Amino acid sequence: MTFTTSTNTRPARQEHGPGTGTPCDAAGGVSAQARREGTQRMPRHGQSRLDPEVARLRQVALDAAAAGLYVFPVREGAKLPIFHGLERCRRRGVCTDGHLGWEQRATRDPDQIRRWWSQSPYNVGIACGPSRLLVIDLDTGDEPLPEWGGATTGSEVLARVAAAHDTQVPATYAVSTPT
After folding, report:
1. How far apart are CA 8 and CA 42, in angstroms?
2. Can you give the C-alpha Rg of the chain in angstroms?
3. Inter-residue contact 130 to 70 (CB < 8 Å)
4. Beta carbons of 84 and 93 less than 8 angstroms apart
5. Which residues share a beta bridge with 74?
6. Is the pLDDT of residue 172 over 50?
7. Of 4, 20, 22, 150, whose CB neighbour count within 10 A is largest?
């Protein structure tokens, strides 16, 4: 069974309620006739249940923020932030004083994160600059790179660069992306 809630407090036409001559019950101002006709809306009590995937991604974002990383929502199945770009900016809301891009809007604020991940299963983006992260993209491949002694992956190249400088690549964060 599915229930809907509404924040609309003004009915399309007021047939029941104060000033209409139709008595209302004491629990919410809805007449008995309205209840019988099924026009009563479900009351809003507390938070609605989150979709499990939305809840999971929200927790990922909250955990990243708790670890000191600045996060922003990314469209599902894409690498694009949900925010409008400079070309589409109308200088309203957070952009009133000038366009704010995804990096400026990234946050560690748990309340903002909960709002962003309240209904849609957005992927979690990390704003590397504000998070003070250096990112090295280590691509994979099948073709040997002669200039790197036949290495075929970015990891092999990075290891050879480190060895050439008599050091090792330290343990760090690692992320896999689709491309």
Report:
1. 12
2. 26
3. yes
4. no
5. 81, 123
6. yes
7. 22
Those residues with Cβ within 8 angstroms of residue 91's Cβ, 6 or more apart along the chain or in another chain: 98, 99
Residue 93: CA count within 13 A, CB half-sphere: 7
Question: From CA 60, how far away is CA 102, in angstroms rounded?
Answer: 18
HEC sequence for 112-145:
HHHHHCCCCCCEEEECCCCCCCCCCCCCCCCCCE
The C-alpha atoms of residue 117 and residue 107 are separated, in whole angstroms, by 13
C-alpha dist (Å) from residue 162 to 1, 101, 166, 170 = 60, 35, 6, 10
Amino acid at 72: F
Rounded Cα gap, residues 40 and 6, in angstroms: 11
The pLDDT tens digits for 19-68 are 334 333 334 444 444 444 444 444 455 556 789 999 999 999 999 999 99
Query: What are phi and psi for residue 73, nearest 5 degrees?
Result: -80, 140
Q: Which two tokens stand for residue 101?
A: 């891009």
